[in-house]
Design brief:
Blueprint: E1 6-11, H1 22-30, E2 33-37, H2 41-48, E3 54-56, H3 67-83, E4 87-92, H4 101-112, E5 116-120, H5 125-133, H6 137-140, E6 142-146, H7 147-152, E7 162-166, H8 183-193, E8 202-207, E9 217-222, E10 236-239, H9 249-257
Parallel strand pairs: 1-4, 1-5, 2-3, 2-4, 6-7
Antiparallel strand pairs: 7-10, 8-9, 8-10
């Protein structure tokens, strides 16, 4: 039997007020305590219209402080009132399970301690990207990974498929204590990408709109110019396919040779 306290980590999407689902809104409204890790102070003010006890998690971030320490503190902040028997809601911009370590850890820890814990999905930056850029991931397939992870691990990239690199504004930043990268580190990213893409290949810097009056950023530029481009926390690097799909005729022939399945 679950203990008295409970935790719900919900996503409110990217655009203020437009993307929240009825289930996520219900969790916010019915919570005893709401913790918010959102992109804009206006979002916190909006949440306060749904619940009077909204506590920001943003002050836990600090320059020179490891983000792993910040995430642990976020988890503990949310779990303390859960352990005290409170109904707690953690609110995260976008999707709470996408590039968000604290919600996953908080839910796992709450369940391990015997509390009810759930995650409610939200509209992510990837969802907005597909709509704003008119990209169908099913046409060529899609690869998606964090930019620094791509840099420091051996990854097999398929240049005939779409590639999305998240958080390029932190590309190559290994200390986890800074909130920006350098042109030299981005150049390392470009050099690695150049193994599979021409330097004149057009890439896209994308930022979803976070409120109705804000314009979506869609900047197209050659790959070689990426080190001097402006990138912020919301920037996503989109690399369209650089090669046509190559048909595997041996597999096609094998499939055609198989007997038809009965209707």
């Amino acid at each position: 039997m679950d203990k008295a306290g409970s935790l719900a980590c919900v996503g409110i999407g990217m655009t203020l007020g437009a993307h929240i689902s009825p289930r996520s809104r219900s969790h916010v409204e019915q919570a005893d305590v709401v913790f918010a890790a959102v992109s804009d102070p206006l979002v916190e003010l909006w949440l306060q219209q749904m619940n009077p006890d909204v506590r920001s998690l943003q002050p836990l971030y600090a320059e020179g402080k490891s983000r792993h320490d910040t995430y642990r503190e976020m988890v503990e902040a949310m779990l303390a009132p859960v352990r005290a028997g409170k109904t707690v809601c953690g609110v995260f911009y976008g999707h709470p399970g996408v590039f968000a370590q604290a919600p996953h850890e908080a839910i796992a820890q709450a369940r391990e301690e015997g509390f009810s814990a759930v995650m409610e999905p939200g509209i992510s930056a990837e969802d907005c990207l597909v709509a704003d850029l008119g990209i169908d991931p099913g046409r060529t397939g899609m690869q998606s990974m964090e930019a620094t992870q791509f840099m420091i691990y051996e990854r097999r990239i398929d240049p005939s498929a779409l590639l999305i690199l998240w958080q390029p504004f932190l590309a190559g930043e290994l200390s986890l204590k800074r909130f920006e990268t350098t042109q030299a580190r981005v150049q390392v990213l470009v050099d690695k990408l150049a193994r599979d893409y021409p330097l004149d290949h057009e890439v896209i810097l994308y930022e979803a709109a976070t409120h109705p009056l804000e314009r979506t950023r869609i900047d197209r530029l050659p790959l070689r110019e990426l080190p001097t481009a402006t990138m912020v926390g919301a920037t996503t690097l989109v690399i369209p396919a650089a090669q046509a799909l190559k048909r595997d005729q041996a597999i096609v022939d094998l499939l055609n040779a198989l007997p038809e399945a009965p209707l």
